[in-house]
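Follow-up to my earlier ticket, as requested here are the two runs.
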Amino acid sequence: FIPFFPCGDPDLETTEQLVLAAAEAGADLIELGIPFSDPTAEGLVIQAANLRALQSGVTTDKIFDLVRELRRGVTIPMVFMTYANVVFSYGTERFLSNCRDVGIDGLILPDVPYEEKEEFLPACRKYVSLIAPTSENRIAMIAREAEGFLYIVSSLGVTGERSEIKTDLASIVSLVRENTDIPCAIGFGISTPEQAKKMADLSDGAIVGSAIVKLLAQDGKGAPEHIGAYVKEMKDALR
């Protein structure tokens, strides 16, 4: 089970408590969002979280410091989810070097098409490697070259809760399995334990973002306890 947390919403102290609570509740990998002013893959819930985090004064350097501190006790994998411009503006080599130094295990850049991955992949191979497939007619090609794990997008459009996921995910996962043996997890639109179990039965795991961020927006600094319980409920459904 993979939860997503936007760093700095409402502040980095809360993000730290969220990660600790999720790790204790059984999360297998944690996705940390570095906020960006134009998060094109995100729906309204995570867009708002990005804005709140930026307004709180969060920076990429402060997030690196947070991860360094978390690594004193958190041993499960953690990956960054952000956008190409965040990495470019920071300096790609410097960004990836810092990822390695603080203990980040992967990088998700949803606005980098497969055909443009060479701008990042040579440097990523030294430190992190993760590729996200988003279109069916290229999945075999992407799967064959993928490293780390494959993030399978469940639905067309941006992130956000969905009452029903209609994509033929079984066919996509089958195609992935024919071309690689690395793990694949499904994200976008998952919010209930029933949905998470269904996705994990098809693949190797479920990724949940918007449903968690909605709880975070409601509870603010009091959210870690509730979100820890939510993560445990989701993880229990996958066991």
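Run two:
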Amino acid sequence: MLAVAVLAAGKGTRMKSDLPKVLQPLAGATLVERVLASCLPLAPQRQLLIVGHQAERVERSLSNLPGLEFVLQEPQHGTGHAVQQLLEPLAGFQGELLVLNGDVPLLRPGTLEELLAKHRSSGAAVTLLTARLADPTGYGRVFADEQGLVSGIVEHRDCSEEQRRNTLTNAGIYCFDWAKLAAVLPLLSTDNNQGELYLTDTVAMLSPAMHLEVADPDEINGINDRLQLAQCEAVLQERLRRHWMAEGVSFTDPASCTLSEGTRFGRDVLVEPQCHFRGNTTIGNGCRIGPGCLIENSSLADGVEVLYSVLRDSTVEESSVVGPFAQLRSGAHLEAGCRIGNFVEVKNSRLGAGVKANHLSYLGDADLGANVNVGAGTITANFDGLRKHRTVIGAGSKTGANSVLVA
């Protein structure tokens, strides 16, 4: 059996934010959501989140995740103290405990699968994830032989000058035999520079201890401040762009575009510079997006073109053209072959197939039939000061320039 514990109790003071560090956003999801998602392919029997700072806020943000157990660490006296809080909820549990950090969001599920497999095959009491870093400043150093057998871990602040020359670092990711860990957790001491209980000290108490060196050191990047958050965002964005280019999407200037993990592209999509995709967005085959677009929580069918425009919570059916300088707001639905042009705004409206609104119009709370031609400057006046009302325009109709339709 497998239990997963995520350490998420810290204050994250270096973020200088009212938002708990583990709730900081990264490519459309919070740090802790990314950590929890990385272990889902392992199908753990128990998932526990150790909370402390703003615990109620963290719990509320994750209340939609089924089966997640919250364990309070109050006060916070280090990583060893955090895992000590599991002694009661995991009493009698038989199996492995995977310990993750809520501020290390770039771990790939395959890496965790490899860590668990090595732990089980080696018969180790603990197996930890390690990485060799060009600049290991701030990371605990791992001391091991050529067979991967670990003799100890020393925190950076406690290292001698000679020990600091070791570039093999502790990623803070562990797989324990829970029964053996539970036996030594009460033995932890605060005899260190910080006066805290270090989970790393259990490695010297458990035998055998093994390590797995990760191939990509970026995976173990931790986040303590805004700079590191931006660096992790850059790594994640590069992963997402590389994935979609391998799937048949062309980016004219990849570095200028950002994606969310919920973005999905068809084949033969062309993305011009300065385009940004947010939330759960689907782009169909053969679309051309940009330059200069923001598309959020929207669905575009095959062959859609969007230029210098903003689309939020909208649906655009095949072969429609949007922009330049148009805005589709929540509830906008364009049927096939629509044309929405310069400085046109559409909100909570359904436009039938072939509708054209090329210039300077506002269509809000409206239903337009097929092949309506909206003259320049047409406005649907949908609000009487108290209530919204719908405007209905039948198929084949045409409005003249500067028309105001009062529902």
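The only thing I checked on run two: The longest strand covers residues 168-177. Let me know what else you need.
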